[in-house]
Design goal:
Layout: H1 3-23, E1 25-31, E2 49-53, E3 62-67, H2 76-83, E4 96-99, E5 117-121, H3 146-159, E6 167-173, H4 175-182, H5 184-189, E7 196-202, H6 217-229, H7 237-240, E8 262-267, H8 271-278, H9 290-294, H10 301-317, E9 328-332, H11 343-346, E10 353-354, E11 357-358, H12 359-367, E12 374-376
Parallel strand pairs: 3-5, 3-6, 6-7, 7-8, 8-9, 9-12
Antiparallel strand pairs: 1-2, 1-4, 2-5, 10-11
Amino acid sequence: MGSENFGLWLFFIASLQFFIRTHCTIVGITYVHEPSVKGAVCLDGSPPAYHLSEGLGAGINNWLIQLEGGGWCNNVTTCVLRRDTRLGSSKAMATELAFSGLLSNQREFNPDFYNWNRIKIRYCDGSSFTGDVEAVDPATNLHFRGARIFRAVIDELLAKGMKNAKNAILSGCSAGGLGSILHCDIFKSLLPPTTKVKCVSDAGYFVNVKDVSGARHIEEFFSDIVATHGSARNLPVQCTSKMKPELCFFPQNVIQLVRTPIFIVNAAYDSWQVRNILVPGVADPRHIWNDCKNDIKNCSSIQLETLQDFRDKFLNALNGFGHPSSRGLFIDSCYAHCQTEMQETWLRADSPKISNTPISKSIGDWFFDRSVFQKIDCPYPCNPTCHNRIF
């Protein structure tokens, strides 16, 4: 490495360290070694884990829980592949995480929640915290216990003071955002009736649409998840009594059943869903979509028409959401996935906005009943504040 390149590398490292020091909080890991729920373990049998940054002052009795995302494993083969990684084992997890965005402890970056108890529950089960299978195959040592993990961590947090919560939020990103929808009412039921409880789902509103080849790839994938993890018993019975359990893994079929106030943050052109639901690799063997999937600015006019059609289907899937004041919507026209955990999309001078309102203010106003926020952005490329993903 030349001296000039080495100097640039050192400058980059120093800039990154400065950003982390000034914008993030480093929070250590806590393992649940003696869970109150028997058998609450990760895929490999290791204990569940979470990161807790304690609240201060007026926020000491307020709790914000964030469920980590990270996709799913849908059969023994894919679960074995993630079993020994951070998404399947607490042994492989980083012992420290940087908290930013809605988890930040700095008022200027997180004005409504900075002094709350802020927790990230690590994701190591591959089922959006819905799995519950007692048997363990000795050949693979796979444990499908996601629902038990959720309950065990919540029980430990209740014992640490959440039983006295004045305000509480269950949030999550991606697979964790789906988990926050599926567990929203359960979470409320575990807290005192006097606690003000609401839920936030970030990039968790996965829709059941055909891919560009005409196949229902995502429906088959979700069917395999539910079967592998024994998830059906942890999905709303009002849904599973009317349709196949895997269909109850889609928010569009369960959101109307959620009684607890809930806020949906999602990009109408969700980059993960475009890349994995609309145009999964198996549906594009000639890789015609690669440039478009990597950067929406590279999409052809025909591809943009397909993306606009996907947006229409996404908005149609929100029809069951309803519009009572207890519910919130921030559906921007960005090509993005997960926008609450990153400072640049949660609250910064150049953060994405709808009606000149950033995500942080829309959620804060909604939680504290200052105003109702139910906004759907105009179609791409209308919003110049978007932070579009480039892969």
